[in-house]
TrEMBL record, chain A:
The chain crosses the membrane at residues 12-35, 73-93, 114-138, 158-178, 185-207, 246-264. This is ABC transporter permease subunit. It comes from the Bacteria. Keywords: Membrane, Transmembrane, Transmembrane helix. Coiled coil: none annotated. It comes from Lentzea alba.
TrEMBL record, chain B:
InterPro entries: AAA+_ATPase, ABC_transporter-like_ATP-bd, ABC_transporter-like_CS, P-loop_NTPase. Residues 3-227 form the ABC transporter domain. CDD domains: ABC_BcrA_bacitracin_resist. Keywords: ATP-binding, Nucleotide-binding, Transport. One of its GO terms (molecular function) is ATP binding. This is ABC transporter ATP-binding protein. It comes from the Bacteria. Belongs to the ABC transporter superfamily. It comes from Lentzea alba.
């Protein structure tokens, strides 16, 4: 418990935490609402179907889908950066040394880090939900739509959002510990989240086995889960797998990333 | 015994960086761990804290295996410079550490006071001077009133005033009965504040003794005119160039003898042996 409190205190007061969350909220608003709103009012593309889609995507009722669709790629990348920085920086700052000599077992120290990151990620998803909801209500009121608040169905996309966020967090923690530093961890992580999987998907169009593989890679699983719970119209969202399958893969990744990271942290000399 | 090691060894590849070190630290003493750069001091200390697993041999810290919560909670340490979050204030850094050590906030204020950082407690760690950073490291080590304080080169990088402050702090703690294991590559520092010394060179503990033993007999250096006459007058003196070396503690009697014989005494001072000379004497290897 002390370890979680300690980590939460230092993550909460870390400017990078709020900068990254802030950047994500601004991105989410801009791409989820601002551009759609502008397109709706005087955009060039005014075909009926597309207009219906724009309206639907901005309805307060559909805010859950708006939250989840951003997470497979860009939101995930930001969460991964946060986790990789939080874990990797400790090597350069010497704070891992301070942490591991403080008293708690290494497993507890790791649990503290992961637990505190989990709290931060829940805050991030909750803030995204609230900010998106606020934006949706604003747009609906401005446009004079008949709107209603999201019902209990919103639980599913939000749970999916948390699972996707957990996977990217685990990925970041894993990279931070494997590379023992922030720079390489962030570089490799961003590369993977934004470039590598997309390239593989491109190759997959030509090679069957690669295509099957891309569906279940970390970003692919996240994209499929987002697609399965109603997310659409954002980069990285896919519709190749069932929701349950995608969710199971994500759970597998979380276990693998955090398990491996913890094992390394416990076993490896800290010099 | 607060710390004992038994043939503690750490190899990196073929090289034994710490080679069968058997040392012991007793309750209430300030133990100086003395050795030149690269001797293996930090690596030994890392093994005592469980940061590094020994290749072979064993160690006990306060009767416990190194690195276990039982051992760590009774030890406060500062290894190779302080490790803190640069964006947090000194006080917040200590609060984070206090959570980990399971001690309450009042200890944070007490520790800040002990190292004289109350005035700068709200400043960001990043903006601290080297001396302040080092003192915050000691404050963190003191949290929770550990039975053993391990300080790895705590005066590293400090200016003379900062070094003196740090030594005063260690002496003050020792006066309260605090057991301290302090590593250093400065012979003078160890002589000044330690009770017992372990000397490590190239991974091997070449000597473990009291400071008096380490210091050896006092050698006086004498500069006088004419020097040959002084050499004849003082029994057992060695002529080295234009000065005399003599194993003697009573400088007063010596000067009187010379002055009565009309020898001009220009300088008489005790010779400080260098670390190299101590090594030479203890190991026969320079
Ligand atoms: N992880 C490592 N891998 C390989 N060699 C290492 C490692 N850590 C330390 N060494 C080597 O072990 C030797 C002893 O290092 P150590 O840091 O223990 O010395 P030290 O006595 O603390 O020196 P200093 O006074 O410079 O701090 C050095 O030569 C160093 O290069
Ligand atoms: Mg060292």
């Amino acid at each position: 418990m002390g370890s979680v409190k300690a980590e939460l205190l230092r993550l909460w007061k870390w400017p990078a935490t709020w900068v990254l969350i802030g950047v994500w909220l601004v991105m989410s608003l801009t791409f989820g609402y601002l551009f759609n709103y502008l397109a709706l009012n005087g955009g060039t593309n005014t075909r009926d179907l597309s207009q219906q889609q724009l309206i639907s995507s901005m309805q307060p009722e559909n805010v859950g889908a708006a939250v989840v669709r951003g997470l497979p790629m860009f939101g995930g990348a930001i969460i991964l950066v946060l986790a990789a920085l939080a874990v990797g920086s400790g090597y350069g700052w010497g704070t891992w040394k301070t942490t591991l000599t403080a008293g708690p077992r290494r497993v507890s120290a790791m649990a503290g880090t992961v637990g505190a990151l989990a709290v931060i990620v829940v805050v991030l998803v909750a803030l995204t939900f609230l900010v998106d909801l606020g934006a949706a209500i604003t747009v609906a009121s401005l446009e004079g739509w008949d709107w209603s608040l999201p019902g209990t169905a919103v639980v599913e996309p939000l749970a999916a959002s948390l699972l996707i966020a957990a996977m990217w967090t685990g990925f970041g923690v894993f990279l931070g510990i494997v590379t023992k530093g922030p720079a390489l961890a962030v570089g490799l992580g961003l590369m993977w989240a934004i470039v590598t999987e997309n390239l593989l998907r491109g190759v997959g169009a030509l090679l069957g086995p690669v295509e099957s593989l891309t569906k279940v890679l970390p970003g692919g699983s996240a994209g499929n889960l987002a697609g399965a719970v109603g997310g659409s119209g954002a980069p990285g969202v896919l519709n190749d797998l069932g929701g349950t399958t995608a969710a199971l893969f994500l759970v597998g990744y979380v276990v693998f990333f955090l398990g491996t990271a913890t094992l390394l942290k416990v076993r490896r000399d800290l010099v | 015994m607060i710390v004992t090691t038994e043939k503690l060894t750490k190899r990196y590849g073929d090289r034994a960086v710490v080679d069968e070190v058997s040392l012991s630290v007793r309750r209430g003493e300030v133990y100086g761990f003395l050795g030149p750069n690269g001797a293996g001091k930090t690596t030994t200390i890392r093994m005592l804290l469980g940061l590094v697993q020994p290749t072979s041999g064993s160690a006990r810290v306060l009767g416990e295996a190194p690195g276990t919560p039982k051992a760590l909670l009774k030890v406060g340490s500062l290894i190779e410079g302080p490790g803190f979050y640069p964006y947090l204030s000194g006080r917040d850094n200590l609060r984070v550490h206090a959570h980990r050590r399971g001690v309450d906030r009042t200890h944070v204020e007490a520790a800040l006071e002990q190292v004289d950082l109350v005035g700068a407690a709200n400043e960001k760690f990043r903006r601290y001077s080297l001396g302040m950073k080092q003192r915050l490291g000691v404050a963190a080590a003191l949290l929770g009133q550990p039975e053993l304080l391990i300080l790895d080169e705590p005066t590293n990088g400090l200016d003379p005033a900062g070094m003196a402050d740090m030594r005063d702090l260690v002496r003050a703690l020792a006066a309260q009965g605090q057991t301290v294991l302090l590593s250093s590559h400065l012979l003078g520092e160890v002589e000044e504040i330690c009770d017992r010394v372990g000397v490590i060179s190239q991974g091997r503990l070449v000597a473990e003794s009291t400071v008096e033993q380490l210091r050896g007999d006092t050698v006086l250096l004498i500069r006088a005119d004419p020097i040959e006459k002084a050499h004849v007058l003082i029994e057992g003196s060695e002529l080295r160039g234009d000065v005399l070396h003599v194993r003697e503690t009573d400088a007063g009697a010596l000067i009187r003898t010379l002055v009565h014989a009309d020898v001009d005494v220009r300088e008489v001072r005790p010779l400080r042996r260098t670390l190299e000379e101590v090594f030479f004497e203890m190991t026969g290897v320079a």
